Amino acid sequence: MHHQLLAQPAMSIAKLTLQAGESITCEVGAMIAMSSGFTVETTSRNKGGGGGLAKGLKRMFAGENFFLNHFTATAPNQSLWIGPGLLGDVMHYPLSGGSLIVQGSSWLASAVGIEIDATWQGLGKALFSGEGMFWVKCSGRGDLFLNSFGAIYPVDVNGEYVVDTGHIVAFEDTLNFKIGKAGSSLVGSILGGEGLVCKFSGQGKLYCQSHNPPSFGKLLGPKLKAR
Amino acid sequence: MEQTFSGGVFSDSLDGGRAGAEIELMPSGVGARTPDGEAFVIPYRDCQVEVGGFSGRMVFCRSADRSLTIFCEESKFPKALSFASSGMLDDQLKLGAKQRRSESRRGLLIGTFLTVGFLLLVVGGYFTIRSGARAAVLALPVSIDAQIGDAAMDSMDLGGPEVDDPVVIAALESIVDRLAPTAAVEGIDFRVHVVDSPEVNAFALPGGNMVVYTGLIRDAETAEQMAAVLAHEMSHATLRHGLQRIGQSLGIWAGVSLLIGDLSGLMGAGVDMLQIASVNSYSRAHENEADEEGIRMLYAAEINPAAMADLFQLMKENQAELPGIFSWVSTHPDHASRIANVHDQVAALPPRKYREISVDWPEVKRRINQDDNRENAEVE
């Protein structure tokens, strides 16, 4: 499979070129356009049989869709265009063993060899991380495509690193984070508009998004006319 | 014994700084082989062990200068590492495991604390609003009672035509007038409506509207017994039982709106609820309160309160004869103990001279019966 990311970072979409017999699993609604030589299969299972009802429900809790779409090329050089719902970046991550922990709604597509599962982070993190209650854990080998709101920037963490809640896209499983306050005093942290932050520790790659949907929603919401 | 595990390696020499790897516990040290064939080894004596990662169970072995890290998440890895290193790394592994346990305990504690706190807040908030709404209802001026009561009176189905016989109305009004000065709350305009119906019943709406059915007038043997009924119903109004009931029935949002000073929820709920006459029954506690207050009013108005007990007794007997008739007493629960209570309260009052009510009660009853006869004649 060949991939190309276009119109980065504000309106990114991914163009994937698949050879006959190759498959990719996409988020429901991610497909923008495609060549005619694809079969599309919609199930709650991972391609190849893993998962099912329980996994589908877990994915729903993680902010993803109950169903998955599997696109399989039936002819050579078939192109598939996929994109996220929100304005923002798309990134490619080649997963080679190990796992990537992805924020609830950031998973866009992955190769067939990648297992997608929802994982619980503990109550404190669920309530205060500014992300979903569950995270999507992607493990295995293959290409993984993630989307963000705004641009994505990677950070190589070795030691500690602090990210505001709501700005995490994904991080490698060699990292862990705790919820903490931005400053030394909680009141100061809240008055400073930062409130709680995610403090990462360990070694590995962390991907952050430049904007976060809740802040955007708060700005936009009051300006919308009531329907 | 050599064992292999799946894990990964961090090294600056790798493209991207990281690769998945097969971990091997060799006699010389922890070894890692990437899929590309690159091999790394950290001797056990140089190994710095850390436990962490997303799962909190990942074991990291770092070289002395930290330029190379081999990591593995498999559950059997720590034990195998301890065994392969001949116990050299046990202290570091134990420390890591201890940290993880204390962190997960702390996490669990905070989680439990937050959950309990949240539940307490929700439950506490609910009851605060409920009791706050009840207190706010009672702090409202009496004019609200009248507004709700009048609106309900206008729109409710009374179950029969109103009687406008001047003798009957005047008789009941004169009893009300005699009792009114003894009312516990000033500013209530008591109005009595007589409705032609065989029901042996009477009820009060908030704000002073009272409805007496002709069935009850026919059953009452003396004007004093009717005075007992009216004193009881007037007590419901002065004790604001109607509004208390509406306050209790208010939904949580109506309660919140009441607390911030918006009366529309209360008015809506009140008028809706009171429109159905048959639900105009009060709780046992309210009935007992109204009995007690009624007795006080009768006594203060120099009317013999024993009439109340007499009436209860009478209705109990009549009810036995006519089971199923919707009667004033039957809507009120547990009347045997109620009669006993009334007897006790009357007996406890200091003796005083009672004045008769100057109403020609037999004439009132005759008028009611005459109306009935006339209606029957019309029907025939």
Automatic annotation (TrEMBL), chain A:
Pfam families the UniProt entry points to: AIM24
Family matches, as InterPro entries: AIM24, AIM24_sf, Trp_RNA-bd_attenuator-like_dom
Full protein name: TIGR00266 family protein
Phylogenetic lineage: Bacteria, Pseudomonadati, Planctomycetota, Planctomycetia, Pirellulales
Automatic annotation (TrEMBL), chain B:
All copies of domain Peptidase M48, residue ranges: 171-343
Assigned keywords, A-Z: Hydrolase, Membrane, Metal-binding, Metalloprotease, Protease, Transmembrane, Transmembrane helix, Zinc
Transmembrane segments: 108-129
Signal peptide, first to last residue: none
Gene3D superfamilies given in the database record: Metalloproteases ('zincins'), catalytic domain
A Pfam family recorded for this sequence: Peptidase_M48
Protein family according to the UniProt entry: Belongs to the peptidase M48 family.
Official protein name in the record: M48 family metallopeptidase
Organism: Aporhodopirellula aestuarii
